[in-house]
Amino acid sequence: MSITPITGQDTLQKFIFDNAAVRGEFIDISATWREVLSRHAYPAPVKKLLGEMVAAAALLSANLKFNGSIIMQIHGDGPVRLLVVECDAELHLRATAKIDPEAVIADDAKLPALLNAHGKGRFIITLDPADKMPGQQPYQGIVPLDGDDVGTVIENYMLRSEQLDTKLWLAADDNVSRGLLLQKLPYNGGKTEAAPLTEDEALETWNRAVILGSTLKEEELLSTTIDVLMQRLFWEETIRVFDPLHPAFHCTCTREKVGNMLKMLGRAEVDSVLEEQGHVGVNCDFCGQHYDYDKVDCAQLFATDAPVEALISAGEVKH
């Protein structure tokens, strides 16, 4: 097995255990992560959580046979109100966090204190098709925030909602975001996507892969390239490696989408902002792009009968 990373590009590397029942993915999405951080200033514990979610969203998206976007959200009841990562079929990602402006966050704060302080935190995955049929709604799965870290929360979601045994090892800091995903392939009467196996053999292979993955430490994941990690962890295994994929930062906000958001707010709300400020300013929560609408712009918005499409995440309207 060999990986040839392209300098300057993020890399997602799929692989499968030959004659086994396990598939996996390594990801180094550090360049995309730095693009996210260049637009936001977050406390260190929030950076860690959001950076791990960025890696996890790309890892899950790469296994979906789905033309659309996966939106991963943690709605919190503590000082962090919301973490959001969106990833489309081309592995274009964007991410943002909402923090209580009055919150004081300790440097060693963990997920339960930040997002599940009163036990009301929720983890949500939404699959939003790119080309919806008339009346089609996005699929959404919502579960309690079950776990002390991002990887465990997602593992529990995948087992509960998708009936997929999944293991994740994630790490992120100010500069690096990396991860490893392992999934147990479905056993179906001795047949898997890889090769015929008995049920005991399939379970043995899965358990061995998880034991190998569990030797990976957070600092090692942060400091070691994915080609070295794969060799280090699975050098005794027969691994089939696929062509690498290359995630990248990309924000889908447009002036048209922001205009639709203003129409969703309604004429009365927009007029009240115009009366107070003389214009309506909207900042994209993901990339920070600013959109400005004067009285003429707003009049044109409400003069058309074109349908308004709901946005996954509206921007912040500046009053």
TrEMBL record:
Q: Name one GO molecular function term.
A: unfolded protein binding
Q: Give the record's GO CC terms.
A: cytoplasm
Q: Which domain of life is it from?
A: Bacteria
The processes (GO biological process) annotated in the record are:
protein refolding
Q: Which UniProt keywords apply?
A: Chaperone, Cytoplasm, Disulfide bond, Redox-active center, Zinc
Note the Pfam families from the entry: HSP33
Q: Which residues form a coiled coil?
A: none
UniProt keyword annotation of Cell wall biogenesis/degradation present: no
Q: What is this protein called?
A: Hsp33 family molecular chaperone HslO
